[in-house]
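COURSE: Structural Biology Practicum
ASSIGNMENT: Worksheet 4, Part C
STUDENT ID: 0417
INSTRUCTIONS: Below are two proteins. For each, the amino acid sequence is given first, followed by its structure token string. Answer the questions at the end about the second protein only.

PROTEIN I
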Amino acid sequence: MPIHSSEQQKIGIISLGNELDVFDILEQGASGIMKLALKFQKRKKKSHEAFGEILTGRGYQVSFIDHSQIKVMMESVKESIAEFTSKYDLIIYFVKKDTMSNQTNLRVEFKSLAGFDAPWFIHEIPTMLISVANPYHEYDFADVMTIINGYSPTDEVLQAIVDKLEGKTPFRGVSPVSMDFYTN
């Protein structure tokens, strides 16, 4: 599915995963000396932000859809399906969910109440999944037809993914993960 900035101008990115940093703690209400100390730190870009910057640099209009914020979610509830779908030419689920030693589950967890960030719009808006830490998220997005496993969120991999999306270089390789289920 090659994309082009003249056809898929408006791209919405929904970031799912476990990529938190100390600045996320600030948003959750840190106070006192912790807040003061963090003001002197430089925040590192998250993978989905770096990916969005690459797309923006190539002429796409990127917006991040974050339904984990209750205020944003409440505004989305008021929108009709037509209003929501008119805002985007393409939706990309960008998932970076790293394996952790104390984590027993690598399933994608949709953040919002009532599943507003779940892929309910796949028949109205072209939708794809890009996973950059774990190749098994296809199980959580069985209805999404375009799935790309990048395996790593490095700048080089993110650039290569965009090159392949635009058709500049071909997709190669075979995923070691298959959704095919065999019954006897």
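PROTEIN II
(use this one for the questions)
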Amino acid sequence: MLLNRKLWYIAIVNALLFALLEPSIEWGLKQFFKIFFQTFGLFFCLFYLFSFLPTKFKNILETCFVLMYAFIGIVEIFLFINFSNYLNPIFFDTLLASQASEAAEFMQSYFSLNVALALLGFIVASILFFYFPLKFNPKPLNSKVYFILFIIISVAIFSKGTKYLEDERLRLGGWFLTIKDGITEQNRYLNEFRELAKTLDTQMQKDYNLTTTLNIPKVVLIIGESTQRNYQSLYGFKLDTTPNLNSFKDSGNLFEFNDTISPESYTNPALAKLLTFSNYENSQSIKWYECMNIIDLMKIAGYKTQWFSNQEAVSVFGNIPEVISDRAKIREFTRIGTSIGLKNDFDEALLDVYQKYRVKADKEFHIFHLMGTHMAYANRFNKNNENVRYFDIDELKDAKLDIYPNGDKISKKGLREKLDYINAIAYNDYVVSEIFKLYKDENAIVFYISDHADEVYNFREHKGHDGGANASRYMIEIPFIIYTSDKFKSSNPQIIEKIKNAQNKPLMSDDFIHGFMDILGITSEDFEPSRSIFSDEFNTNRVRIFSGKDYDKELKN
């Protein structure tokens, strides 16, 4: 029979998913019935064509569509409960850029009791829909009636078929476009970057206009992950989560910058702007991979470039840190390949990697890429490390960190995750400080900055960095710190003065590379003094945009 349960199931699921996003019940019901009839009509025509195939193939095709919609339903319900949204290019781009363990941890972090009950309800309802006996068995329509309906519906639906897909009224169509465009775009820019990289060693070093005056022997960049500065006692947090950083500050070796944000809340776009001359203003006219990157810049300046990472060497489809790190002369990871396990090596493993693989030279540029405080937070700190002072639930309650600013109580689950994040921050303090110590006897300067932040139950029952409609300041307020050894301080007093004068200036990290060059005495054809936080020409009035909002006017306070 053409009007079977499979057809009804697809139409109901598609309409239900679309209607859930509507702001009111009344409007949601209107959308449900509207999308239901459109979907029903479209698949009626498709199933009508299937009816001319052998029964076996017809049943296989119909079942495939049902299974696809069941899978879409499961994924979209998961995303809707956690993010009030469905699969979109941002979510899919994040998936493509994620390592296997990150994707697994993402599922672990967001799989709550509410999600489990909702998904179980959907699965049970789907099974009952197909196996619950019906007393009402209408007679099949005449084949001529089916044909007439096919013609009428085909004309009505397919005359606006493109619009139907563009509006994503058909969730299967929306998924197809998102996945196709995402994979195509990801592969395109990664392949183009690799092609451009082939010419960088010869053409760019010969033609790129760069001068350097200071020749600082040891330059280090530590890239954090998902670290929000508001949870660091260095920036005023109630609990002493950064005792080591505080100690370096007290000794005069550390300088924290108090008003730094990321332009993005996802690693790929954030690091594309942090590690190249791509920025918010030029990103629409020039691709990030067409810009000079920080590693090739330092190679041209005469530095031996070395990349040490505790993130996996291979992601699902490749990512920006992966291809940029490939430009380094030496690239070492705490482990090779991907992992489906939920626990990476702790960041302290980088200390051994450094000792084992570091190659000494007159001028060295080292990058440490941390796992930092990436969710799942409980997996980001070594509970057996006795050098770290961890906290417990009672200490959070004593500090009134179990209460939101409006007086509401944080849920038990939220408080547990908040505690894990705080302990990950404490562990991160240990790791970053140990990296500083590697250079304490050298003439060295170390920059530490996070790619983006995570909002972690700061003012609502929410964690993550999803941006969009959920955007908040806590997803982009990141630590930016400079450590200088005693040798560096004594030989570069003018640089120390420039650093001190810049600590309270407003910075968005897509301008980081300009300040980085300024401090190192490097100028090039891409350097802009108005974008260097250490320059007297720095533009303190730059509008800082995140998720389409003016950070200083709409998000900061």
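ANSWER KEY EXCERPT:
Q1: Residues 171-207 form the longest helix (37 residues).
Q2: The mean pLDDT is 86.
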